[in-house]
Amino acid sequence: MNSALINEHFFNPKNVGNIDDAQAAARAGSVTCGATLRVSLSVDESQRITDAKFKSAGCSYLVAASSLLTEQVKGKTTAEAAVLGQFPKRLVAEHFDGWPADRDHCAALACEALISAVKQYSDSVREEWTGDEALICTCFGVSERTIENEIKEAQLRTIDEVTKACNAGAGCRSCYLLIEEILDDCWRTAGSLEIANR
């Protein structure tokens, strides 16, 4: 390894272990090298990550990436953590000098486990939601009504357009299928009204 920081995170990794009372935990595995990784998260009521830990069976690069990532997400909201996890190459490029391109899959695996944990957390929040409106995007707190209004007002047709308009789907992306259903319903309803008004 060329980077002193990579060595530091491998020989003295941060956040190794499990969180016993974790709000979310997820595993990821690599078909490229056979490595496995588990990430667990503690999340407070404001959706801020108060603790993050990992356990891995893999190479020094996976350990270093997991150590760095769990350090980076502490104090971030689940939405911010999910956004960070979508760019594994940027994560290692910004923090590690000399990260080899043939080890990008190690950083990707760490990020995959993180995003899976955030998705699990988002799904549990959605299931327990008791608000007046259906909560679709738990990462950014976007309701079904907000998404419907954005679709109708701006004539949105894709998930990317919805995300740009109101942030729904910009985090862990566990709400993609729900947004797609809302898009289909809105356009089906719009088509029915158009036919009825002819």
Compact summary:
52% of the residues lie in helices and 14% in strands. The protein is an alpha+beta fold and 198 residues long. The strands form two sheets. It has a three-stranded antiparallel sheet with strand order 1-2-3, with helices on one face.
Provide an overview of this structure:
The chain is α+β, with helices and mostly antiparallel strands and 198 residues long. It has two domains: 118 residues, Sufe protein. Chain: A, CATH 3.90.1010; 68 residues, Arc Repressor Mutant, subunit A, CATH 1.10.10.1100. Helix content is 52%, strand content 14%. The protein contains eight helices and five strands; from the N terminus they run αβββααααββααα. The protein has a three-stranded antiparallel beta sheet with strand order 1-2-3, with helices on one face. Strand 2 and strand 3 form a beta hairpin. The protein is elongated.
